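Could you join me in thinking about how sequence relates to backbone shape in a protein? Label the sequence line and the structure token line clearly, so we can match residues to local backbone shapes. Once you have written the record down, we can walk along the chain together.
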Amino acid sequence: MFDKLDFITEKYDELAEKVSEPAVINNQPVWQKYIKEMGEMEPIVKKYKEYKKTKTELAEAKEFLEIGDDEMRELAKMEIGELEEQIRTDEEELKVLLLPKDPNDEKNVILEIRAGTGGEEAALFGADLLRMYTRYAERKRWKTELIDMNETGIGGVKEAVMLIKGKGAYSRLKFESGAHRVQRVPETESSGRVHTSAATVAVLPEVDDVEIDLDPNDVRVDVYRASGNGGQCVNTTDSAVRLTHEPTGLVVTCQDEKSQIKNKEKAFKVLKARLYDLEMQKQADEIAGQRKSQVGTGDRSERIRTYNFPQGRVSDHRIGLTIYKLDQFLDGDIDEVVDGLITDDQARKMQAF
């Protein structure tokens, strides 16, 4: 571990010298590349320097045990205990910092919600989830853009696609992919019987053009009139866009904007994200052993969480965590579970490391 830390520190120092060279400063793409690399290494280098400083202080404190008087030795013993505890903490933090990073962690997110089994009740739950993630994004000061939504007559959501923009959005939301189950008494249920419904969530990283090779000739573009609950352009202009990727059969629609051009741009973003996700899934399938982590097998039909209204609880089945604050959770206060999933992921990686 320490050989790797020394190597990273040396590399960081080399880059620090290079970014101040006139030839590099005048070459913006190269300069930005070096700055980005330094930014990724900086937390590790900073923590390692703190660790080495603490080790030096520990060595000095131990010297006082040999040369100091009784009072100095007593103070040294107390300091040694604190410094040794700090060193243990720093070592654990360094191990976490050295864990392999998900290259998508800092990307924006395309989040898709689809009502599953349960008919109208599943669609109402889909609307609850859409609101929950929108509120969570607001708490994180992330921006949201609704790309497409298929609503029911009583406020349910059969399908919704939303773009979430913000630093670290994918790192926080990537564990939300999967089947979410709800248990509650529907408003239309006169007998008071609890029903079980479900909705699926897919979290995709927004990808750049350079990351996915999309041939425009493989995409059929159809335009049609937007449908919805009103608005100046509804049913008056062909502003809605449908993309069909013929090699895979993937279909993406967007009718959120009044402009056909903007709808087309958004639709292509979603299509690229889905194609990238397909490629990532393909690569994951090729990895020997396919270890089952907190996101399960990656199969989106797998149940990951239950929202039980009669008991006011939320249970995440991957980490065995249950909390009794359903109302706050659905209002976007989901960090406790998200943090638990991230910690579990880090623990598994640490075990492998």
Notes: Confidence is low (pLDDT under 50) at residues 229-235, 287-301.
